[in-house]
Amino acid sequence: MVSRKEEILVKLLALLCILAPSQGKGQRHSFPYLRPASSFSSLPQTHYYDYIIVGGGTAGCPLAATLSQKYNVLLLERGGSPYGNRNVSYMQNFHISLADMSPNSASQPFISTDGVINTRARVLGGGTCINAGFYTRASPRYVNEVGWDGKLVNESYPWIERRIVHFPKIGPWQDALRKGLLQAGVSPFNGYTYDHLYGTKVGGTIFDDTGYRSTAADLLKASNPRKLRVLLHATVQNIMFNTQGQKPKAIGVRFKDELGHEHKAYLNQKTAASEIIISSGAIGSPQLLILSGIGPKEDLERLRVKPILYNQHVGKEMLDNPMNSIFVPTKKPVKQSLIETVGITKVGSFIEASSGFGQSSDSIHCHHGIMSAEIGQLSTIPPKQRSLDLARSFAQTKKDIPIEAFRGGFILEKIDGPLSKGQLTILNTDIETTPNVTFNYFSHPQDLRRCVFGIRTIEQILRTKSFADLSDVHNYSSEEVLRMSVRANVNFIPKQTNDTKSVEQFCRDTVITIWHYHGGCHVGKVVDQEYRVFGVDGLRVVDGSTLLKSPGTNPQATVMMMGRYMGVKILRTRLGRAAGV
Ligand SMILES: Cc1cc2nc3c(=O)[nH]c(=O)nc-3n(C[C@H](O)[C@H](O)[C@H](O)COP(=O)(O)OP(=O)(O)OC[C@H]3O[C@@H](n4cnc5c(N)ncnc54)[C@H](O)[C@@H]3O)c2cc1C
Ligand SMILES: *[C@@H]1O[C@H](CO)[C@@H](O)[C@H](O)[C@H]1NC(C)=O
Ligand SMILES: *[C@@H]1O[C@H](CO)[C@@H](O)[C@H](O)[C@H]1NC(C)=O
Ligand SMILES: *[C@@H]1O[C@H](CO)[C@@H](O)[C@H](O)[C@H]1NC(C)=O
Ligand SMILES: *[C@@H]1O[C@H](CO)[C@@H](O)[C@H](O)[C@H]1NC(C)=O
Ligand SMILES: *[C@@H]1O[C@H](CO)[C@@H](O)[C@H](O)[C@H]1NC(C)=O
Q1: Smallest Cα–Cα separation from 173: which of 369, 345, 439, 323?
Q2: Cis peptide before 188, with omega less than 30 degrees from 0?
Q3: Ligand 3 atom closest to Cα of 113?
Q4: Which of 7, 15, 391, 497 sits at 20 to 30 Å (Cα–Cα) from 107?
Q5: Is residue 173 part of a domain?
Q6: 442: phi > 0 → left, psi -120 to 50 → alpha, else beta; which?
Q7: pTM, two decimal places
Q8: Which domain holds residue 522?
Q9: Is residue 460 domain-resident?
Q10: 3-class secondary structure per residue, 212-229
Q11: Catalytic status, residue 263
């Protein structure tokens, strides 16, 4: 005997499978609460929510799962489902996924005004669906500086880890880096750990041993499904406010569905505690605030957006950690790896590595993993000359590149907490237009000094025995490596690493991104310590846009932790012990 409730559920699931094209055979999980945005008006349930979360990304998913334990939550995500999308689910498709420039792609490429090709996630699960998977926590010192409750932080990380994180079985490339780092003095070896410790370690990953990716969307399994509704392809246009009272109060959002139709979703007005929480990422969150009337006066005037509150800091202090890498030819093809081993130096540059080589004998099917031509990490061309079109055409002519140029891997360094700062400029009132973003890489001399240190450390690693055993570097002259690298769309290499000027030039010419950009809604400037937007009621921002510094060596662990952490904090504040979390 099938109950009426189950019958409705089955029908909804069927509807979902028809409407969401990415729900296919590869699907390992099904969620009854995932719906296409257009279903919003036709469903019988109330349209009033205790929490509306804008952005089902790295922070938004754990936050929604947690709040739904006690309250009705609406999670609005502009992208589609990660389930059944092979570009998302398999490590071997990492570069293909980032190269997909179609409107339905999980990755939305953009180029900063600096000329560095970058990307924004556009899928349920956000950055965790397109990233390199490396999982590593922030240090207790970082947690202390931010002012988080260390005990709750230490409970929130494992909540993520037991659901979606593994330790990798490291292959030859990552193992060579591990040994090379130790021989070059980046010691001790701290083993397999999520902790941020000086020296060398192997961190966690959201890929399993078969290369299958878990994502932040999987954290929604921990939700109360009766209190959570997730709408896919729901693009929020702006936040609506009630401006009658002393302070403007956020009351709802306006969003478009996958057919372009507009809807409005409202907060539960019976209690002042209902809130809208923006988790749209470091570009999406400041953009949404400005288009909702909270931002610098001159921006609101130029765009003719009705002002709710002037705040000159919104969209300012955009930061991106510059990355530079060196290609290392090897004797034999190496197995694909993204990031698994890291060297944490005291100078504030972090050393990581990636390798990627198809088993094919022609170069068109080979790739360099995170440094692939397909992604547009065109570091053979100085930033100001790069473009998305050039990247696209380069990827297509890859067949002219000799196969040897794909035999090898990269060692990369990223600098911690860049002092160079930029901003974003909104180009028009369409939320779908990515703003102009500027990061001003290396405009601060200390950032350049740390890059030089990082590159010199990589050079030392290359001279160690573990790399001599693995690589061909010793068999080629620098000029030969350089020539091969340039043809393969990989780095120039500095001619003399003992010449500071030459390495500085190398840093500037080959700068790319490791996609850890953050800022735009900083704590103390746009939001308070509890992530409440200054000057208005019922509105918070919880995601990477609030971070003053990128946490740990790589941020995703801490951004997910932050979603869980803030969810628990909000529940405990409202319910005390009764929160039960
Ligand atoms: C290619 C790549 C590789 C990376 N590699 C690693 C790595 O190996 N390890 C690591 O720790 N970190 C890595 N990162 C960084 C990390 O993934 C990000 O810092 C993190 O995911 C950012 O989380 P977030 O919650 O701030 O934003 P996101 O996860 O981007 O979430 C924002 C969400 O909001 C949605 N959204 C935006 N605007 C709207 C709107 N108006 N309406 C509705 N929805 C909206 C977006 O579609 C998105 O899903 C990588 C990132 C990239 C892109
Ligand atoms: C995966 O990416 C490729 C392009 O890189 C694209 O052609 C393909 O349609 C994408 N697949 C899915 C399921 O989105
Ligand atoms: C946006 O960036 C482009 C490329 O750098 C530049 O030509 C344009 O003038 C910028 N627009 C605004 C409004 O800043
Ligand atoms: C949190 O855990 C880390 C180890 O992962 C430890 O060093 C730190 O002291 C802990 N913090 C608190 C407040 O317990
Ligand atoms: C590289 O050089 C070493 C000696 O330094 C030699 O034994 C080895 O055969 C060379 N490898 C190739 C592929 O030429
Ligand atoms: C750097 O080293 C090379 C060879 O090792 C040497 O010829 C050159 O003079 C050195 N340059 C400087 C600036 O020390």
Answers
A1: 369
A2: yes
A3: 5
A4: 15
A5: no
A6: left
A7: 0.93
A8: 34-91+121-166+214-319+516-574
A9: no
A10: EECCHHHHHHHCCCCCEE
A11: no
| Residue 556 known to bind ligand | yes
Q: Which atom of ligand 1 is nearest to the CA of 235?
A: 42
Indicate the number of domains in the chain. 1
Ligand 1 surroundings by CB, under 6 angstroms: 54-60, 76-79, 98, 119, 121-123, 126-128, 130-134, 235-236, 279-282, 284, 288, 339, 431, 515-516, 543-544, 554-557, 559
Ligand 4 binding pocket mutation candidate from 154, 157, 194, 198 (most atoms within 8 A of CB): 154
User: Of the listed 95, 368, 516, 518, which one is catalytic?
Assistant: 516
Which residue, by CA, sits nearest to atom 9 of ligand 2?
100
- CATH number of the domain to which 222 belongs: 3.50.50.60
Tell me the CA–centroid distance for residue 437 and ligand 3, in Å.
Answer: 9
Give 205 Cα–ligand 4 centroid separation in angstroms. Answer: 21
Task: Report how far apart, in Å, the C-alpha atoms of 579 and of each of 274, 483, 490, 572 are.
Answer: 16, 62, 53, 5
328 is in an annotated binding site: no
Q: Consult the annotation and say whether 286 binds a ligand.
A: no
Do the domain assignments include residue 61? Answer: yes
* CB distance 247 to 537 below 8 Å: yes
Q: What whole-number distance in Å separates Cα of residue 101 and Cα of residue 88? A: 14
Residue corresponding to tokens 């560095």: 116
474 lines ligand 5 (CB under 6 A): yes
Report the distance separating Cα 563 and Cα 433, nearest Å. Answer: 26
Q: Establish whether 103 is an annotated binding residue.
A: no
Ligand 3 pocket residue status of 387, Cβ below 6 Å: no
| Ligand with an atom nearest the CA of residue 371 | 1
Atom of ligand 6 nearest to the CA of 499: 13
pLDDT in tens, the chain (581 residues): 444 554 444 444 444 433 443 433 334 456 778 999 999 988 655 568 999 999 999 999 999 999 999 999 999 999 999 999 999 999 999 999 999 999 999 999 999 999 999 999 999 999 999 999 999 999 999 999 999 999 999 999 999 999 999 999 999 999 999 999 999 999 999 999 999 999 999 999 999 999 999 999 999 999 999 999 999 999 999 999 999 999 999 999 999 999 999 999 999 989 899 999 999 999 999 999 999 999 999 999 999 999 999 999 999 999 999 999 888 888 888 888 999 999 999 999 999 999 987 667 777 778 888 988 888 887 778 898 889 888 888 778 776 777 777 888 899 999 999 999 999 999 999 999 999 999 999 999 999 999 999 999 998 898 888 888 888 777 776 666 666 666 665 555 666 667 888 889 889 988 999 999 999 999 999 999 999 999 999 999 999 999 999 999 999 999 999 999 999 999 999 999 899 88
Strands 51-54 and 73-76: parallel
The CA 283 to ligand 6 mean position distance, Å, reads 44
Listing DSSP states for 57-81 in one string gives STTHHHHHHHHTTTS-EEEE-SSB-
State in Å: Cα 517 to ligand 1 middle. Answer: 9
- Asked if residue 52 is part of any domain, the answer here is yes
The residue with tokens 């900083």 is 522
Which ligand is nearest the CA of 130, by number?
A: 1
